[in-house]
User: Fold this.
Amino acid sequence: MHTQTVALTGATGYIASHVVVALAEQGYNLVGFDNLSNSSAAVVERLEQLIDGPFAFHKVDIRDTATIAEALQQHQVDAVIHLAGLKAVGESVDDPLRYYDNNVAGSLSLLTAMRDACVNQLVFSSSATVYDPDQPSPLTETSQLGPINPYGRTKYVVERLIDDVAATSDLRAINLRYFNPVGAHPSGLIGEDPVGTPNNLMPFIMQVASGQRDELSIFGNDYDTPDGTCIRDYIHVTDLANGHVAALNALATVTTSEAINLGTGTGTSVLDVLRAAEQAVDRPIPTRVVERRAGDGAVSFADPALAADRLNWQADLTVAQACVDHWRWQRQNPTGYPDLSG
Ligand code: NAD
Ligand code: UDP
Assistant:
Protein backbone atom coordinates (compact mmCIF):
# COMPACT_ATOMS: atom_id res chain seq x y z
CA MET A 1 0.00 0.00 0.00
CA HIS A 2 1.10 3.59 -0.75
CA THR A 3 2.67 5.19 2.36
CA GLN A 4 1.03 8.56 2.91
CA THR A 5 3.21 11.66 3.08
CA VAL A 6 1.97 14.30 5.47
CA ALA A 7 3.22 17.89 5.67
CA LEU A 8 2.89 19.79 8.94
CA THR A 9 2.95 23.58 9.15
CA GLY A 10 4.18 24.99 12.46
CA ALA A 11 6.10 21.71 12.65
CA THR A 12 8.52 22.68 15.43
CA GLY A 13 5.80 24.13 17.68
CA TYR A 14 4.46 22.61 20.90
CA ILE A 15 1.53 20.66 19.49
CA ALA A 16 2.98 19.82 16.06
CA SER A 17 6.13 18.29 17.56
CA HIS A 18 3.93 15.79 19.42
CA VAL A 19 1.88 15.14 16.26
CA VAL A 20 5.13 14.37 14.38
CA VAL A 21 5.97 11.66 16.93
CA ALA A 22 2.45 10.18 16.81
CA LEU A 23 2.46 10.08 12.98
CA ALA A 24 5.98 8.63 12.80
CA GLU A 25 4.85 5.83 15.12
CA GLN A 26 2.12 5.03 12.56
CA GLY A 27 4.63 4.88 9.70
CA TYR A 28 3.74 8.08 7.81
CA ASN A 29 6.37 9.90 5.74
CA LEU A 30 6.69 13.40 7.15
CA VAL A 31 7.79 16.85 6.10
CA GLY A 32 7.78 19.93 8.32
CA PHE A 33 7.46 23.66 7.60
CA ASP A 34 8.06 26.40 10.19
CA ASN A 35 9.45 29.95 10.13
CA LEU A 36 10.76 29.45 13.70
CA SER A 37 8.98 32.64 14.84
CA ASN A 38 7.84 30.89 18.02
CA SER A 39 9.94 27.73 18.18
CA SER A 40 13.51 26.50 18.13
CA ALA A 41 15.51 24.66 15.49
CA ALA A 42 16.62 22.44 18.39
CA VAL A 43 13.22 20.73 18.15
CA VAL A 44 14.29 19.10 14.87
CA GLU A 45 17.18 17.29 16.61
CA ARG A 46 14.92 16.19 19.46
CA LEU A 47 12.37 14.86 16.97
CA GLU A 48 15.05 12.94 15.07
CA GLN A 49 16.05 11.34 18.38
CA LEU A 50 12.44 10.40 19.11
CA ILE A 51 11.55 9.10 15.66
CA ASP A 52 14.95 7.48 15.26
CA GLY A 53 15.64 8.87 11.81
CA PRO A 54 15.84 12.03 9.73
CA PHE A 55 13.02 14.59 9.75
CA ALA A 56 12.62 16.58 6.50
CA PHE A 57 12.37 20.15 7.77
CA HIS A 58 12.07 23.39 5.75
CA LYS A 59 12.52 26.76 7.43
CA VAL A 60 9.85 28.64 5.51
CA ASP A 61 6.96 31.02 6.12
CA ILE A 62 3.53 29.73 5.08
CA ARG A 63 2.94 33.12 3.40
CA ASP A 64 5.63 32.15 0.85
CA THR A 65 3.13 30.43 -1.45
CA ALA A 66 5.57 29.45 -4.21
CA THR A 67 8.12 27.82 -1.88
CA ILE A 68 5.40 25.90 -0.05
CA ALA A 69 3.83 24.71 -3.34
CA GLU A 70 7.21 23.59 -4.61
CA ALA A 71 7.97 21.67 -1.41
CA LEU A 72 4.52 20.02 -1.44
CA GLN A 73 5.22 18.83 -4.98
CA GLN A 74 8.82 17.83 -4.30
CA HIS A 75 7.78 15.61 -1.36
CA GLN A 76 4.63 14.33 -3.12
CA VAL A 77 2.54 15.32 -0.13
CA ASP A 78 -0.88 13.66 0.26
CA ALA A 79 -2.25 15.67 3.20
CA VAL A 80 -1.43 18.78 5.20
CA ILE A 81 -1.87 19.35 8.94
CA HIS A 82 -1.96 23.12 9.37
CA LEU A 83 -0.79 24.08 12.86
CA ALA A 84 1.22 27.23 12.07
CA GLY A 85 -0.22 30.30 13.73
CA LEU A 86 0.23 32.99 16.33
CA LYS A 87 -1.76 32.18 19.47
CA ALA A 88 -1.38 34.82 22.19
CA VAL A 89 -4.80 36.37 22.84
CA GLY A 90 -3.45 39.58 24.46
CA GLU A 91 -0.97 40.14 21.63
CA SER A 92 -3.79 39.71 19.09
CA VAL A 93 -5.75 42.50 20.81
CA ASP A 94 -2.71 44.82 20.64
CA ASP A 95 -1.73 43.95 17.06
CA PRO A 96 -4.70 42.56 15.09
CA LEU A 97 -3.08 43.28 11.72
CA ARG A 98 -0.17 40.99 12.55
CA TYR A 99 -2.59 38.25 13.64
CA TYR A 100 -4.84 38.51 10.56
CA ASP A 101 -1.79 38.64 8.31
CA ASN A 102 -0.09 35.62 9.86
CA ASN A 103 -3.12 33.46 10.60
CA VAL A 104 -5.62 34.41 7.89
CA ALA A 105 -3.35 35.52 5.02
CA GLY A 106 -1.01 32.65 5.97
CA SER A 107 -3.86 30.12 5.65
CA LEU A 108 -5.00 31.68 2.37
CA SER A 109 -1.46 31.30 1.05
CA LEU A 110 -1.26 27.69 2.23
CA LEU A 111 -4.60 26.79 0.61
CA THR A 112 -3.40 28.40 -2.63
CA ALA A 113 -0.17 26.42 -2.50
CA MET A 114 -2.16 23.23 -1.83
CA ARG A 115 -4.40 23.92 -4.83
CA ASP A 116 -1.35 24.61 -7.03
CA ALA A 117 0.30 21.39 -5.86
CA CYS A 118 -2.95 19.36 -6.13
CA VAL A 119 -3.02 18.45 -2.42
CA ASN A 120 -6.64 18.07 -1.35
CA GLN A 121 -6.62 16.78 2.24
CA LEU A 122 -6.35 19.16 5.21
CA VAL A 123 -6.54 19.04 8.99
CA PHE A 124 -6.64 22.50 10.58
CA SER A 125 -5.80 23.54 14.16
CA SER A 126 -8.81 25.50 15.25
CA SER A 127 -9.72 26.28 18.82
CA ALA A 128 -12.52 26.24 21.38
CA THR A 129 -12.14 30.05 21.38
CA VAL A 130 -14.39 30.08 18.29
CA TYR A 131 -17.37 29.41 20.62
CA ASP A 132 -19.35 32.20 22.25
CA PRO A 133 -18.02 32.14 25.86
CA ASP A 134 -21.57 32.53 27.22
CA GLN A 135 -22.70 29.23 25.67
CA PRO A 136 -23.37 26.48 28.23
CA SER A 137 -20.96 23.54 28.42
CA PRO A 138 -20.58 20.86 27.29
CA LEU A 139 -19.96 22.63 24.00
CA THR A 140 -21.03 20.73 20.91
CA GLU A 141 -19.95 21.58 17.39
CA THR A 142 -23.37 23.16 16.84
CA SER A 143 -23.09 25.45 19.89
CA GLN A 144 -23.27 29.14 19.01
CA LEU A 145 -19.99 30.52 17.65
CA GLY A 146 -18.83 33.98 18.71
CA PRO A 147 -15.14 34.55 19.36
CA ILE A 148 -14.48 37.63 21.49
CA ASN A 149 -10.91 38.54 20.54
CA PRO A 150 -8.90 38.89 17.30
CA TYR A 151 -7.06 35.58 17.83
CA GLY A 152 -10.34 33.68 18.10
CA ARG A 153 -11.75 35.56 15.13
CA THR A 154 -8.76 34.56 12.95
CA LYS A 155 -9.58 30.91 13.77
CA TYR A 156 -13.25 31.52 12.97
CA VAL A 157 -12.40 33.19 9.65
CA VAL A 158 -9.99 30.44 8.60
CA GLU A 159 -12.61 27.78 9.38
CA ARG A 160 -15.06 29.63 7.08
CA LEU A 161 -12.36 30.01 4.41
CA ILE A 162 -11.72 26.26 4.50
CA ASP A 163 -15.48 25.53 4.41
CA ASP A 164 -15.92 27.79 1.36
CA VAL A 165 -12.99 26.29 -0.54
CA ALA A 166 -14.07 22.73 0.33
CA ALA A 167 -17.62 23.45 -0.86
CA THR A 168 -16.45 24.33 -4.37
CA SER A 169 -13.35 22.19 -4.93
CA ASP A 170 -12.07 18.69 -4.22
CA LEU A 171 -10.61 19.82 -0.86
CA ARG A 172 -11.61 17.58 2.07
CA ALA A 173 -10.94 19.09 5.48
CA ILE A 174 -11.41 18.69 9.23
CA ASN A 175 -11.31 21.74 11.50
CA LEU A 176 -10.18 20.42 14.87
CA ARG A 177 -11.35 22.61 17.75
CA TYR A 178 -8.81 22.04 20.51
CA PHE A 179 -9.71 22.68 24.13
CA ASN A 180 -6.76 23.26 26.56
CA PRO A 181 -3.63 21.31 25.55
CA VAL A 182 -1.31 20.47 28.49
CA GLY A 183 1.51 18.07 29.35
CA ALA A 184 4.50 16.86 27.37
CA HIS A 185 5.91 13.75 25.73
CA PRO A 186 6.78 11.17 28.43
CA SER A 187 10.44 11.20 27.31
CA GLY A 188 10.80 14.80 28.54
CA LEU A 189 12.54 15.59 25.22
CA ILE A 190 9.77 17.79 23.77
CA GLY A 191 7.26 20.06 25.46
CA GLU A 192 5.89 23.58 25.66
CA ASP A 193 8.55 26.30 25.67
CA PRO A 194 6.77 29.63 26.11
CA VAL A 195 8.65 32.81 25.25
CA GLY A 196 8.64 35.30 28.15
CA THR A 197 5.89 35.15 30.77
CA PRO A 198 3.53 32.25 30.10
CA ASN A 199 -0.12 33.20 29.50
CA ASN A 200 -1.43 29.71 30.12
CA LEU A 201 -2.08 28.11 33.46
CA MET A 202 0.00 24.92 33.27
CA PRO A 203 3.35 26.40 32.13
CA PHE A 204 2.93 29.19 34.68
CA ILE A 205 2.33 26.70 37.52
CA MET A 206 5.39 24.68 36.46
CA GLN A 207 7.60 27.77 36.42
CA VAL A 208 6.44 28.62 39.96
CA ALA A 209 7.15 25.03 41.02
CA SER A 210 10.68 25.25 39.62
CA GLY A 211 11.35 28.55 41.39
CA GLN A 212 11.47 30.69 38.22
CA ARG A 213 8.41 32.64 39.39
CA ASP A 214 7.27 33.52 42.91
CA GLU A 215 3.60 32.67 42.86
CA LEU A 216 0.64 31.78 40.69
CA SER A 217 -2.01 34.47 40.29
CA ILE A 218 -5.42 32.82 40.39
CA PHE A 219 -7.61 34.96 38.17
CA GLY A 220 -10.74 35.15 40.34
CA ASN A 221 -12.33 32.78 42.86
CA ASP A 222 -15.82 34.25 42.79
CA TYR A 223 -17.14 32.51 39.67
CA ASP A 224 -20.34 30.53 39.80
CA THR A 225 -18.53 27.18 39.99
CA PRO A 226 -18.18 24.70 42.91
CA ASP A 227 -14.85 26.16 44.14
CA GLY A 228 -15.23 29.62 42.61
CA THR A 229 -12.43 29.21 40.04
CA CYS A 230 -12.86 28.79 36.29
CA ILE A 231 -13.41 25.38 34.75
CA ARG A 232 -11.68 24.23 31.57
CA ASP A 233 -11.13 21.04 29.60
CA TYR A 234 -7.42 20.16 29.87
CA ILE A 235 -6.35 17.63 27.25
CA HIS A 236 -2.98 15.84 27.34
CA VAL A 237 -0.95 16.78 24.27
CA THR A 238 -0.33 13.07 23.56
CA ASP A 239 -4.09 12.47 23.36
CA LEU A 240 -4.40 15.57 21.18
CA ALA A 241 -1.63 14.30 18.88
CA ASN A 242 -3.39 10.94 18.53
CA GLY A 243 -6.55 12.87 17.61
CA HIS A 244 -4.69 14.18 14.55
CA VAL A 245 -3.80 10.66 13.43
CA ALA A 246 -7.48 9.74 13.81
CA ALA A 247 -8.53 12.85 11.85
CA LEU A 248 -6.17 11.98 8.98
CA ASN A 249 -7.67 8.50 8.81
CA ALA A 250 -11.20 9.95 8.89
CA LEU A 251 -10.54 12.32 5.96
CA ALA A 252 -11.37 9.41 3.66
CA THR A 253 -14.98 9.68 4.90
CA VAL A 254 -15.26 13.48 4.65
CA THR A 255 -16.76 14.96 1.49
CA THR A 256 -16.29 18.72 2.13
CA SER A 257 -15.35 20.02 5.58
CA GLU A 258 -16.33 19.25 9.18
CA ALA A 259 -15.61 20.80 12.58
CA ILE A 260 -14.78 18.39 15.41
CA ASN A 261 -13.99 19.11 19.08
CA LEU A 262 -10.88 17.58 20.62
CA GLY A 263 -11.44 17.63 24.37
CA THR A 264 -11.84 15.20 27.24
CA GLY A 265 -15.42 16.10 28.13
CA THR A 266 -14.35 16.68 31.75
CA GLY A 267 -14.27 20.10 33.38
CA THR A 268 -11.39 20.81 35.79
CA SER A 269 -11.10 23.93 37.95
CA VAL A 270 -7.98 26.05 38.44
CA LEU A 271 -7.75 24.74 42.03
CA ASP A 272 -8.08 21.13 40.79
CA VAL A 273 -5.16 21.69 38.40
CA LEU A 274 -3.16 23.29 41.18
CA ARG A 275 -3.71 20.30 43.49
CA ALA A 276 -2.75 17.84 40.74
CA ALA A 277 0.39 19.86 40.02
CA GLU A 278 1.34 19.95 43.73
CA GLN A 279 1.07 16.15 43.80
CA ALA A 280 3.26 15.83 40.71
CA VAL A 281 5.96 18.23 41.86
CA ASP A 282 5.71 17.11 45.50
CA ARG A 283 5.84 20.62 46.93
CA PRO A 284 3.38 23.39 47.72
CA ILE A 285 2.86 26.00 44.98
CA PRO A 286 2.38 29.53 46.35
CA THR A 287 -0.71 31.31 45.02
CA ARG A 288 -2.52 34.60 45.33
CA VAL A 289 -6.09 35.30 44.26
CA VAL A 290 -6.30 38.35 42.02
CA GLU A 291 -8.93 40.04 39.87
CA ARG A 292 -10.71 38.10 37.14
CA ARG A 293 -8.92 38.18 33.78
CA ALA A 294 -10.87 40.05 31.10
CA GLY A 295 -12.60 37.74 28.63
CA ASP A 296 -12.53 34.58 30.79
CA GLY A 297 -15.79 32.63 30.78
CA ALA A 298 -16.60 30.64 33.94
CA VAL A 299 -16.95 27.19 32.37
CA SER A 300 -15.77 25.71 29.08
CA PHE A 301 -15.54 22.03 28.34
CA ALA A 302 -16.18 19.87 25.30
CA ASP A 303 -18.80 17.41 24.33
CA PRO A 304 -16.40 14.93 22.68
CA ALA A 305 -19.16 12.66 21.28
CA LEU A 306 -18.64 13.67 17.65
CA ALA A 307 -14.90 12.90 17.85
CA ALA A 308 -15.76 9.45 19.25
CA ASP A 309 -18.27 8.90 16.47
CA ARG A 310 -16.45 10.39 13.46
CA LEU A 311 -12.82 9.80 14.46
CA ASN A 312 -13.17 6.75 16.68
CA TRP A 313 -11.02 8.71 19.14
CA GLN A 314 -11.24 9.65 22.78
CA ALA A 315 -8.88 11.18 25.33
CA ASP A 316 -7.42 8.66 27.78
CA LEU A 317 -4.92 10.56 29.92
CA THR A 318 -5.67 12.55 33.08
CA VAL A 319 -4.70 16.02 34.24
CA ALA A 320 -2.61 14.28 36.92
CA GLN A 321 -0.62 12.48 34.18
CA ALA A 322 -0.23 15.75 32.25
CA CYS A 323 1.23 17.38 35.39
CA VAL A 324 3.71 14.52 35.87
CA ASP A 325 4.79 14.72 32.21
CA HIS A 326 4.96 18.51 32.11
CA TRP A 327 7.07 18.51 35.30
CA ARG A 328 9.51 15.99 33.79
CA TRP A 329 9.92 18.23 30.71
CA GLN A 330 10.34 21.29 32.98
CA ARG A 331 12.99 19.62 35.15
CA GLN A 332 14.95 18.26 32.17
CA ASN A 333 14.76 21.60 30.31
CA PRO A 334 14.53 24.34 32.96
CA THR A 335 15.17 27.08 30.40
CA GLY A 336 13.41 25.37 27.51
CA TYR A 337 15.16 24.30 24.31
CA PRO A 338 18.82 25.27 23.81
CA ASP A 339 19.25 28.38 21.67
CA LEU A 340 20.78 27.32 18.35
CA SER A 341 20.43 30.76 16.74
CA GLY A 342 23.92 31.99 17.62
P1 NAD B 1 3.31 27.10 18.91
O1 NAD B 1 3.54 28.57 18.88
O2 NAD B 1 4.16 26.28 19.81
O3 NAD B 1 3.41 26.50 17.44
C1 NAD B 1 3.04 27.24 16.29
C2 NAD B 1 4.21 27.17 15.32
O4 NAD B 1 3.86 27.88 14.14
C3 NAD B 1 5.48 27.84 15.86
O5 NAD B 1 6.54 26.90 15.78
C4 NAD B 1 5.71 29.04 14.95
O6 NAD B 1 7.08 29.31 14.76
C5 NAD B 1 5.00 28.58 13.67
N1 NAD B 1 4.51 29.68 12.83
C6 NAD B 1 3.74 30.74 13.19
N2 NAD B 1 3.49 31.51 12.13
C7 NAD B 1 4.10 30.93 11.05
C8 NAD B 1 4.19 31.26 9.68
N3 NAD B 1 3.64 32.36 9.20
N4 NAD B 1 4.89 30.44 8.87
C9 NAD B 1 5.49 29.31 9.35
N5 NAD B 1 5.44 28.96 10.64
C10 NAD B 1 4.75 29.76 11.49
O7 NAD B 1 1.77 26.88 19.26
P2 NAD B 1 0.98 25.54 19.57
O8 NAD B 1 0.47 25.64 20.96
O9 NAD B 1 1.76 24.35 19.17
O10 NAD B 1 -0.26 25.73 18.61
C11 NAD B 1 -0.36 25.12 17.34
C12 NAD B 1 -1.67 25.54 16.70
O11 NAD B 1 -2.74 25.13 17.54
C13 NAD B 1 -1.81 27.05 16.52
O12 NAD B 1 -2.44 27.30 15.29
C14 NAD B 1 -2.71 27.46 17.67
O13 NAD B 1 -3.45 28.61 17.38
C15 NAD B 1 -3.60 26.24 17.80
N6 NAD B 1 -4.16 26.09 19.15
C16 NAD B 1 -3.34 26.07 20.24
C17 NAD B 1 -3.89 25.97 21.52
C18 NAD B 1 -2.99 26.00 22.74
O14 NAD B 1 -3.50 26.29 23.84
N7 NAD B 1 -1.70 25.70 22.65
C19 NAD B 1 -5.27 25.87 21.68
C20 NAD B 1 -6.08 25.88 20.54
C21 NAD B 1 -5.51 25.97 19.27
N1 UDP C 1 -5.40 31.13 34.90
C1 UDP C 1 -5.02 31.60 36.14
N2 UDP C 1 -3.75 32.09 36.30
C2 UDP C 1 -2.85 32.13 35.27
C3 UDP C 1 -3.25 31.63 34.00
C4 UDP C 1 -4.53 31.15 33.86
O1 UDP C 1 -5.81 31.59 37.10
O2 UDP C 1 -1.72 32.61 35.46
C5 UDP C 1 -6.75 30.59 34.72
C6 UDP C 1 -7.57 31.34 33.68
O3 UDP C 1 -8.33 32.35 34.28
C7 UDP C 1 -8.46 30.23 33.11
C8 UDP C 1 -7.64 28.95 33.28
O4 UDP C 1 -6.60 29.28 34.24
O5 UDP C 1 -9.62 30.11 33.89
C9 UDP C 1 -7.00 28.48 31.99
O6 UDP C 1 -6.31 29.59 31.39
P1 UDP C 1 -5.43 29.43 30.09
O7 UDP C 1 -4.93 30.80 29.73
O8 UDP C 1 -4.42 28.36 30.29
O9 UDP C 1 -6.47 28.88 28.99
P2 UDP C 1 -7.80 29.55 28.36
O10 UDP C 1 -8.10 30.81 29.09
O11 UDP C 1 -7.42 29.76 26.95
O12 UDP C 1 -8.86 28.53 28.53
Observations:
- The first strand starts at residue 5 and ends at 9.
